[in-house]
């Protein structure tokens, strides 16, 4: 029994859950008593909440590492480098409070004095006076009689340039049409778009029409001899008749609505590679270098011959106002001719201008629709330049090296831009801003040189034809809806009369 008594004594000695009556106060008891005393002193109106703790609190400094601290003021300066978490929370609260709607602020039941008292009791200072991350209200008004002589350098108001939207130009064609048996000849003009939305294309000795409205394909005509081929196409202004230049030196006139040939005009001695209309006058350019004017209303159609080129006339364009005819040839010349008078001038007509700045064949010609006295021309492989001319003064306004053969040009009036088609070496289509001639975008959709580019009736789409035997449609100039509505209103107020060629 003695050994059991000894074990009971050992257990009683090792037992730790019995209270120690004469030991020091526990750490958690000291912290609890100090926090309760500081809370009571913080609620007292005569004392601040930032009272230091008693001597019984664990020292906050490590002995031997005394470091001077920045004194803390109520509502500290913005530039104080040390921030405590309480101030950051207050700043966040102030920012969210400023973003509250006016109704929420007005519904607050507490008065400003009560809020101030609570703020001092809880935080030790008024949160409305805290400066850290606090964005003040409206700026103070200037004193009476104050004058500010400083100029305004910057403004937060949005400028028209920042509001303006840039249009999207697709880098891929909107539609692709097959053009088999297309003749791969740089000097021919095998594509034209009518005002009635019919796209005419010459494929060897055939002419096809594509109805862009319905998507139907219409076979129009075929030359009698298999060895002959179509060299040029040109629609009349009203889009009812199509002129066809052939390799057998003739110019045919077709009534598209009835799909019937109206007449065949023979006057040239070589193939007819270029055509252009001016009301009832049809001008045709030949490989012989001659330009013939045809009055399609009379039996003796050939009324005038222009002899300014020594080689093939591959470019021919009448100005929008009908005053001038521009011609470009394989002799690198650009000629501007006056309007044909009624009755014709025989062979006496002389060129107003004859420019020889290009170093290659000039096939690409385009008149500016909104500036009838402006003409753009493009040179072949040896030149590669686009030149813009003022017909009134006879001077070259601007010149641009495109680094590629220029085969066709057309002005796009919707955005006042210039479109150029290219052969060697890029085989692409480029849109230029006019008159700065800064590049807007490059369109890559052809694997061979692009021969011609033509514009749709609404000027929103261009069609390009290439040696890869495809026709690409690019919807690159769709108008803004507001601008389009204004254009329709202007057109509805003006009455336009069209004169038939017969």
Question: How would you portray this structure in words?
Answer:
It is a single chain. By secondary structure, this protein is an alpha+beta fold. The chain has a domain at 184-340 and 350-490: 7 Propeller (Methylamine Dehydrogenase, Chain H), CATH 2.130.10.10. The protein contains seven helices and 28 strands. The strands form seven sheets. Strands 1-28-27-26 form a four-stranded antiparallel beta sheet, with no helix packed on it. A four-stranded antiparallel beta sheet has the order 2-3-4-5, with no helix packed on it. Strands 6-7-8-9 form a four-stranded antiparallel beta sheet, with no helix packed on it. A hairpin with a 5-residue loop joins strand 4 and strand 5 (217-222). The model is unreliable at 39-68 and 493-502 (pLDDT under 50). This is Cell division cycle 20 homolog. One of its GO terms (molecular function) is ubiquitin ligase activator activity. Keywords: Repeat, WD repeat. Residues 27-80 are annotated as: Disordered. One of its GO terms (biological process) is positive regulation of anaphase-promoting complex-dependent catabolic process.
* CATH fold naming of one domain: Methylamine Dehydrogenase, Chain H
CATH architecture call of one domain: 7 Propeller
CATH class of one domain: Mainly Beta
**Largest pleated sheet:** 4 strands, antiparallel
Provide the gyration radius in Å: 44 Å
**Range of helix content:** 10-25%
Strand arrangement in the largest pleated sheet: 1-28-27-26
The helix count comes to 7
Oligomer: single chain
């Amino acid at each position: 029994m003695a050994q059991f008594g000894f074990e009971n004594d050992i257990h009683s000695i090792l037992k730790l859950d019995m209270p120690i009556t004469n030991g020091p106060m526990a750490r958690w008891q000291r912290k609890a008593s100090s926090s309760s005393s500081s809370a009571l002193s913080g609620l007292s109106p005569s004392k601040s909440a930032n009272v230091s703790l008693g001597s019984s609190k664990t020292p906050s400094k490590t002995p031997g590492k005394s470091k001077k601290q920045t004194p803390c003021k109520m509502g500290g300066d913005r530039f104080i480098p040390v921030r405590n978490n309480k101030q950051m929370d207050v700043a966040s609260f102030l920012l969210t409070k400023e973003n509250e709607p006016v109704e929420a602020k007005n519904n607050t039941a507490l008065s400003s004095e009560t809020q101030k008292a609570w703020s001092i009791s809880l935080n030790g200072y008024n949160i409305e006076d805290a400066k850290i991350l606090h964005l003040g209200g409206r700026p103070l008004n200037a004193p009476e009689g104050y004058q500010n002589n400083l100029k305004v350098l910057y403004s937060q108001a949005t400028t028209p340039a920042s509001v303006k939207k840039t249009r999207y130009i697709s880098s891929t064609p909107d539609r692709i049409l097959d053009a088999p048996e297309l003749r791969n000849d740089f000097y021919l003009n095998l594509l034209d778009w009518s005002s009635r939305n019919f796209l005419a294309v010459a494929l060897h000795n055939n002419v096809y029409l594509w109805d862009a409205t319905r998507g139907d394909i219409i076979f129009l005509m075929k030359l009698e001899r298999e060895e002959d081929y179509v060299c040029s196409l040109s629609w009349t202004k009203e889009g009812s008749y199509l002129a066809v230049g052939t390799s057998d030196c003739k110019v045919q006139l077709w009534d598209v609505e009835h799909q019937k040939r109206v007449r065949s005009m023979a006057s040239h001695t070589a193939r007819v590679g270029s055509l252009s209309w001016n009301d009832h006058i049809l001008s045709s350019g030949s490989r012989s270098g001659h330009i013939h004017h045809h009055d399609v209303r009379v039996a003796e159609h050939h009324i005038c011959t222009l002899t300014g080129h020594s080689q093939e006339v591959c470019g021919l364009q009448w100005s929008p106002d009908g005053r001038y005819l521009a011609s470009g040839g394989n002799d690198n010349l650009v000629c501007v001719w006056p309007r044909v008078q009624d009755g014709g001038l025989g062979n006496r007509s002389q060129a107003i201008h004859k420019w020889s700045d290009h170093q290659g064949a000039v096939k690409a010609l385009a008149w500016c629709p909104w500036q009838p006295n402006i003409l753009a021309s493009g040179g072949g492989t040896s030149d590669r330049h686009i030149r813009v001319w003022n017909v009134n003064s006879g001077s070259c306004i601007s010149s641009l090296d495109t680094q590629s053969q220029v085969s066709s040009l057309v002005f796009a009036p919707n955005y006042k831009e210039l479109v150029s088609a290219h052969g060697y070496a890029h085989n692409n289509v480029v849109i230029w801003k006019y008159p700065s001639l800064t590049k807007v975008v490059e369109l890559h959709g052809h694997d061979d040189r692009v021969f011609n580019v033509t514009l749709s009736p609404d000027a929103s789409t261009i069609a390009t034809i290439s040696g890869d035997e495809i026709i690409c449609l690019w919807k690159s100039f769709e108008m803004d809806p507001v601008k389009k509505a204004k254009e329709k209103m202007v057109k509805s107020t003006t009455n336009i009369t069209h004169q038939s060629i017969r």
